[in-house]
Amino acid sequence: MTAIFIVVFSVIYLLVLYNFYIAICGRIRVFTITSFFCLCYISFAYIGSILLNIMHFEAEDYLGMYARPDIFFLVWVFTLLGLLFLLLGFAIANIVFKNICYPRKNRDLQLIKVSISCFDNSDKNFFVILFLFILSFFVLLVYRNVIGGFPLESVFSADNGAALAFLRSEATNNFSGKFYRYVMFMETLPLFLFIVVSFIKSCKKKKWQYLYIALFLYNLFYSLSTIQKAPILKFLLLCCIIFFYKNGFIKKKIILKLVVFSCGLVLIMYMCFMGLEDAPIEVIIEGALHRVFIGAIHPFYWYIKYAEEFGFLYGTSFPNPAGIFPFEPFRLTVEIMDYAKGDLLGDLVGSMPTVYIGEMYINFGLYGLILASIMFGFALQTLDILFVRSLLVSKSVIFSSLYIYMIYYFSQFAETGISGIIVDTNFYMVLFISFIYCLINRCNLRGHGKKEGLSRYKCASSR
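and the corresponding structure tokens:
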């Protein structure tokens, strides 16, 4: 009876909140920061919290998690509350910015084409982007030299899944050095350049199309290089977001094809990356589906259990840049992994991130979860409103690229904590590049305007 109640209540609850979202933001025609985050939250947290309560999974049973069904129930309740107060934050943002009719302006934005300026399409801009891409490629080679080879290179030579897991750990969580510095140049920078060039290539000049292909292949390779499952799926999702944004509406057929392709890709990656080539197909399917729907919400159980046993952290898991605050940062995701699976890890250094409400709960309890959801929802909706307002004035390449990056960037918090935003150098690097790009673009437009007697000079559109 409990399982039936959870399923029925969850479906009704989701339908009610969907209508609430439509009332706040309007119908979903293209992905926005809020709509895409909600989609990720439902896919990676909401559905998983239901499945944990109504099904029996071998992985959770092996860890003895079913001895505490009350914690599973709390995971479900907290996930529901997180979504409710997130939407409440959206509504509060709409009230604060009530002079901007967001649903109507968002609809109007979809009818406007992205304008490509002469600077966007210039040789100067091409060589700057090419230089940054070459720099990213060089950093990637340096990184490979430091770790002694990409884990992807050992997929077919490693003896088993444990050996691959060790290589993945050494290349990521157990990397000796400032890993975030490498990530800035070999992941974030080329990804943002890919978004920018995705619009400029519409000018049909071959040099931009070749650069687009090179950036696509680079990002595709990098997303596979550490043999993690999520990065490649996220990159494919990003490609779809760009396509829908350029076309002004979401195509259901493309989403369906992406889902089918992603399912097949996840199965193949599980066979190759987890050393399960000889395992029965039903075991592979179960493992893949478990990773997609349960992987991000599973750690929330341990966050609740840890807080119950040791008490709340009261912000000590938050970043402490340059030690300006009087506490030693608590490596939350690594410590939770050790707490949950310490006896099974051996020499591996793993991590257990979960949906952002998990981090807020283990630090400040239920009230912290509620307040953080409202504030985070307010921040996401505010960004959406400000971007839509700016894009209606000038739907330029750089503003559109930054908006899409924001959609992609904030979606990650359906699977990890939000406290790292304040010291996220990747985030600030993209903002800095966008600011410089926008500044140079405006200077070039003013120069053209004076020469031609025009206030604005547009070369083409991206559609």
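(Above: one complete record from the training split.) The chain has two domains: 1-110+293-341+350-382+399-423, 118-282.
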